[in-house]
Design goal:
The chain is α/β, with parallel strands linked by helices and 737 residues long. 45% of the residues lie in helices and 16% in strands. It has 27 helices and 23 strands. Strand 19 (643-645), helix 25 (657-663) and strand 20 form a beta-alpha-beta unit. Helix 2 runs antiparallel to helix 3 (28-53) and helix 8 (220-238) packs antiparallel against helix 10 (250-268). The protein is globular, with a radius of gyration of 28 Å. It starts with a helix and ends in a 17-residue tail after the last strand.
């Protein structure tokens, strides 16, 4: 399955026919494993192929389609905007679920509502940048075949939704009424219904820094707590009755009651993908307990893994799947026979330290960092949530049944106090987040080290496991003196550029950010910096005040040490004549001067970077007027550059013929979203640059772009994020407008 799902491209359908004779020809002792592996690969290929075939085609991107269907799951609310999963009725033009946004809607929608809608369809597409969330992979794992936004909608009638859908929506509405205005409402909704509407960006930052994000994802921990609690309570109560015990043994009754409780909680959480995985794992454990046979823990874990992969092959695309199984395996090792001689007071700290060791390689792989606070915080938070979760669920049941609402208020207050405590810890321990993006060999070595450290004491050379972690902290080789790396990040319709020298980092613009919506600083720029181990921004330059260039700055200022900032608030303005040098790389501001009365675009800061013989010009959003002033006042040698970041995203109001002739670059980089509503880059501009002999790369078509400047071979080592092929990812393309 791994080979199929993580391959650069889908394998053709005829390859299993070639592989089958090979599997049958191998020795008998490995024939069945080989056949099972082949069957798993075919099963995964069928799932992936069917999902990809149902995707809305790129050729019909932007088309309006009328559909009738139903809202699946609880809608998300951000101010006046709504977002929900929409399932068209059978036989519709779209064969799968759609992630729908309804902007500035005054209509309240609920889970299970039937809608007649006209949708502006979009093919699954997202930003591709090192360290950033892979939206296209998430869409595939969630089996979402398209995204869209509402053009017109009306309610309709149809078959009634499933009962648990009505139950979840009704409970969500009542929670909002019972806890109106309470700061703990969002946490109660998250733990009860897997509804994260009330969890804002600050909450997620606190959870990330403290390593406690998993506490709000209803998964193995939560299902296990509920199932285990009801198993023990059910078994205890069952034993009180001889009549009941004569019908069914108490241990089996406990398993049955625990399983029913797990099912009820999973239904309350909407049977989300993590919840389904946890439910499958519990089903395997419950079957082992029901049979009353002595089963080895790791056999049960392996069987649970096979069950998860068989029912949902796409689960291997989720970081949560890997982290869950690694954590459970580590707990089995640490809490099994090896814990027999360990004193009680040392068991929990020992378990948390072991989990840190076990999860470190996977955490660094998926999140480009790890929190050193996590073991200490989780050692306290997990037992605390083990008490709070049943209390919250019990208080919700009491309120729902009409017995009492007051316990629910107490539970919400307790959760809020925990959130406040985590916020204090995160504020004083933010520096304990370790940023790193180790190489593949270093991660494999660390994984081997984790196995050795956690192995039974009889395993020889366990001490070598510690040495295997050293490559993770080995300093990454810096850029040579006099060289620089320029990265134009894929932030959608906006601009964000990072320039690195040997010891310094410059951020030129920080991408867009919209209230209650996408923040490129937090989602794209910060992950890129973390993936390169950068904790300090030595200089930030905001070309001008438009939100598509400056919106993401606040997120960077919050998460990174920041030196001088130009072009924002009371900070020194960006003005012609400014210059500085870092590690043999020269930076010069060519514009503006004496243009205070000009429009905002034309007062953009124009920055020139020179590393060795290679030069780059970053002109922000200047248009015709600014370009004319620049060509007239700047030294011609300063404008004769190798690389230009196209002014104003390739708008037809910029990149005049005079500017193109003056710069005459070899490469033009364009920061523009794929098929954006502004039509950037414009066809005339593309033709103009190509006519001048430049090679064009647009972030919306290629993903993030980065190139090395000043290398002695006099060649640009340009890389495109979409060149790293994956089955779920659109290939790099060239704008043809």
């Amino acid at each position: 399955m791994l080979g199929v799902l993580w391959a650069p491209a889908l394998m053709p359908w005829w390859w299993p026919g070639l592989a089958l004779p090979v599997a049958l020809a191998v020795p008998a002792r490995i024939r069945w494993p080989a056949l099972c592996a082949l069957l798993g690969a075919v099963w995964a290929l069928w799932h992936v192929q069917s999902t990809l075939d149902a995707r809305w085609p790129a050729a019909r991107h932007g088309e309006d389609v009328s559909l009738q269907g139903r809202i699946v799951g609880l809608p998300e609310t951000r101010g006046p905007d709504r977002r929900f999963r929409f399932r068209p009725e059978a036989g519709a033009a779209v064969r799968g679920d759609i992630r729908v946004s309804w902007y500035r809607s005054e209509v309240e929608v609920a889970a299970g509502d039937c809608l007649d809608v006209t949708l502006r369809m979009r093919t699954p597409r997202g930003s591709v940048s090192p360290g950033a969330f892979d939206y296209e992979r998430w869409l595939l794992a969630e089996r979402l075949v398209a995204t869209a936004y509402v053009r017109d909608a009306a309610f309709c009638t149809g078959a009634p939704p499933p009962p648990w859908t009505r139950l979840r929506q009704g409970l969500d509405t009542r929670l909002g009424a019972w806890l109106a205005g309470h700061p703990g409402l969002g946490l109660v909704r998250a733990l009860t219904l897997a509804n994260r509407n009330g969890i804002d960006d600050d909450d997620w930052r606190v959870l990330r820094v403290t390593g406690t994000s998993h506490l709000l994802a209803i998964s193995g921990l939560h299902i296990g707590l509920v199932a285990g609690l009801f198993l023990f309570l059910g078994r205890w109560a069952w034993r009180r009755s001889a009549w009941l015990c004569s019908r069914l043994a108490a241990p089996r009754a406990g398993v049955l009651i625990g399983t029913m409780a797990a099912l009820a909680y999973a239904a309350l959480a909407g049977f989300s993908v993590p919840t389904q995985r946890a439910l499958i794992m519990w089903a395997v454990v419950a079957a082992a307990l029901w049979s009353a046979r002595s089963a080895r823990p790791f056999h049960v874990l392996a069987l649970a893994g096979l069950a998860v992969m068989a029912l949902d092959p796409l689960a291997v695309l989720s970081a949560g799947t890997w982290l869950s199984f690694i954590a459970v395996g580590a707990i089995m090792l640490l809490a099994g026979g090896r814990a027999a001689g360990v004193r009680a007071w040392w068991r929990i700290p020992r378990l948390q330290a072991g989990l840190l060791v076990a999860l470190a390689p996977a955490t660094l792989l998926f999140f480009d960092g790890a929190s050193l606070l996590a073991p200490v915080v989780n050692a306290l938070a997990i037992p605390l949530f083990g008490v709070l979760l049943p209390a919250v669920l019990a208080s919700v049941v009491l309120a729902w049944s009409g017995i009492a609402v007051l316990p629910l208020a107490f539970s919400a207050e307790a959760l809020h106090l925990v959130r406040v405590g985590l916020g204090v810890v995160a504020e004083h321990g933010a520096d304990l987040w370790v940023q790193a993006a180790p190489s593949g060999p270093a991660l494999l070595c660390a994984g081997l080290g984790a196995l050795l450290v956690l192995a039974p004491q009889a395993v020889p050379l366990r001490w070598l496991g510690v040495a295997c972690f050293l490559p993770l902290i080995w300093p990454r080789p810096g850029l040579p003196h006099g060289q620089a790396e320029l990265a134009l990040l894929d932030v959608g319709q906006g601009l964000a550029t990072v320039v690195r020298t040997r010891h310094h980092t410059l951020v030129y613009d920080a991408g867009p950010a919209w209230p209650g919506g996408f923040d490129a600083g937090d989602a794209i720029v910060a992950p890129w910096l973390r993936s390169h181990g950068i904790a300090r921004i030595d200089r930030a330059v905001l070309s001008h005040r438009h939100a598509d260039h400056s919106g993401g700055f606040d997120a960077l200022a919050r998460d990174f040490d920041m030196a001088p900032v130009h072009g924002r608030g009371d900070a020194p303005p960006c003005e012609r004549g400014m210059r500085w040098e870092w590690d043999g790389v020269r930076f010069t501001v060519l514009h503006p001067r004496d243009v205070a009365a000009w429009d905002i675009n034309n007062v953009s800061c124009v920055l020139r970077v020179q590393a060795g013989n290679d030069t780059v010009l970053m002109p922000g959003d200047i248009e015709r007027r600014g370009e004319r002033r620049l060509v007239r006042t700047a030294d011609p040698e300063q404008l004769d550059v190798d690389v230009v970041v196209a002014p104003h995203h390739g708008s037809r109001t910029s990149s005049t013929r005079a500017f193109v002739r003056a710069t005459h670059p070899e490469i033009v980089l364009v920061g523009a979203g794929w098929r954006n509503r502004h039509g950037h880059p414009h066809g005339e501009v593309l033709h103009r640059w190509r006519e001048a002999g430049a090679r064009l790369h647009v972030t919306g078509h290629t993903g993030s772009l980065w190139l090395r400047l000043g290398a002695p071979d006099d060649g640009f080592r340009l890389r495109r994020a979409r060149d790293t092929a994956r089955i779920w990812r659109a290939r790099p393309s060239v704008p043809v407008r």
